[in-house]
Write a structure and sequence with these properties.
The protein is of the alpha+beta class and 101 residues long. The chain is built from three helices and four strands; from the N terminus they run βαβαββα. The chain has helices at residues 13-25, 42-48, 69-77, and strands at 2-8, 31-37, 54-57, 60-64. A four-stranded mixed sheet has the order 2-1-3-4, with helices on one face. β3 (54-57) and β4 (60-64) form a beta hairpin.
């Protein structure tokens, strides 16, 4: 099963769109997701302030700002599922920025 993290904030329309997309796709694909409010953590706010929403799949940045259903499913298909015990909270800082989608 893939682990998906959405870094978001309140009153973010694009964040809501991404979360709605994940909710729609969840019955069709092998992943679980959760949301992290960047404004609750000063380090995350500094890191992602102007990029939300940011979507990580299995600890690697996959999308920022926008995410289409077909793009997400293709990204899932191209990744190995997360290993047991991997961190959902702390993304891999070496993963670098995601390419614009």
């Amino acid at each position: 099963m893939h682990d998906v993290v959405v870094y978001s904030r309140k009153e973010c329309h694009l964040c809501e769109v991404v979360k709605e997309t994940l909710t729609r796709l969840q019955p069709r694909a092998d992943f679980r997701w959760h949301e992290v409010d960047i404004d609750a953590d000063p380090e995350l706010r500094q890191r992602f302030d102007v990029e939300v929403p940011v979507v990580f799949i299995d600890g690697r940045k996959a999308f920022k700002y926008h995410m289409e259903e077909h793009q997400f499913l293709r990204a899932l298909a191209g990744r190995e599922p997360a290993k047991a015990g991997s961190s959902l909270r702390d993304p891999d800082p070496s993963s670098g920025p995601a390419s614009p989608r």
